[in-house]
Amino acid sequence: MDRRTPVLALAATVLAAGLGAASPASGAAVPLPGASATRVSLPAPRSAATGTPSPTASVKPRKSTSPQGPAQSDGTLQILTYRGYADYSGTTGEFEKTTGCRIARYDTVQTAAQMAAQVGQRPYDVISAGPVLAADLIAGKQVQPVDPAKVPGYGDLTKRFRDMTVRSGKVYGVPYLWGFHEFLYDSSRVKGDPTLRDVFGSGHVALRDTPLTIADAALADGVEGDPFELGKDELGRAAGLLEEQPGREYWTEPLDLVKGFATGSLDYAQATPYYRLLLQEAGRPVKAVDAPRTTGWVDSWMLGAGVPNTECAYRWLAYTATAAVQRKAVAWVGLAPANPKACAKATRRVCDAFGVDEPEHLDRVAFATRPPDGCKPKDGCPAYAAWEKRWHALVR
Question: In angstroms, what is the C-alpha Rg of the chain?
Fold first, then answer.
């Protein structure tokens, strides 16, 4: 039988769902889900026929009249985010209409590496950032503290996520979307009940191409503490576990996962619950490994440093914190909302897959920080540069 037929059929299903619309920043170049498929009872992706950008196409940035100048103070806003993260279903137009603020510049990138490079080129009023970039922006004084009192609805956001943006008693971000990892397996090829150790012992597995995957390897190795605060020996064992199978795949495009499961070349893959839903609805015999602990991340909106007038920036922070906007983001991007009130109607199934309303479910998730965070190099924890060095040596 020609393997191209199921590959193309499954790929078409995913592309129809808008795969690859956004690239949540968990610290590396990791594109994640696009719009949710109607097959999982979510709104169908918008198209050019509706006048709204398709999630599979880049949103054309709006260029400011002063591209090298400071952030604007004339009722305009300059935004840096991931493709598909904020301009969907008419959200930016709605923001301009309801707030009176004009989006003078809207720059998008596809990967966290591109985000880090872009944020260093010019100032922005608001930036969406994952844990590693957020830590770098705070340390580099490229963002300023946020006053939660100026963000109506801030209290509706999950407290655990709010606390993650606090440094030295100051709030530096407004949580937006989050996710965690599952390790999927093809139950027609893998029999029994595989463990996380089985995943990392396989040569037929696709892992995310990010140094933070070392934290998942540490969990497979049995680390008891925070997998993002590894000691030198723990880091060495986790990286060693990855090095045992030099031929495995490291993915940056989610479509690689789809192809792998469609062709039977993969036994396992690191993904999110959204992909489990998507693949199962496409008829693939995919299940999630029952693991006691896993890793995740939270993306937040941050306020750029040196913004001369923050009125429109705060209006954006308040707008994106609302249940209505986050509900659209869940349906479009396939991640979970920081505002649980967004879990209603069409987004309920995705929220249930992520366990949004189950605090005990989230207790098993170790949310990413920029290693080593709470454990400092002087305490025997290698800095993040050591993680990057081990990872680049492994992948290259």
Answer: 20
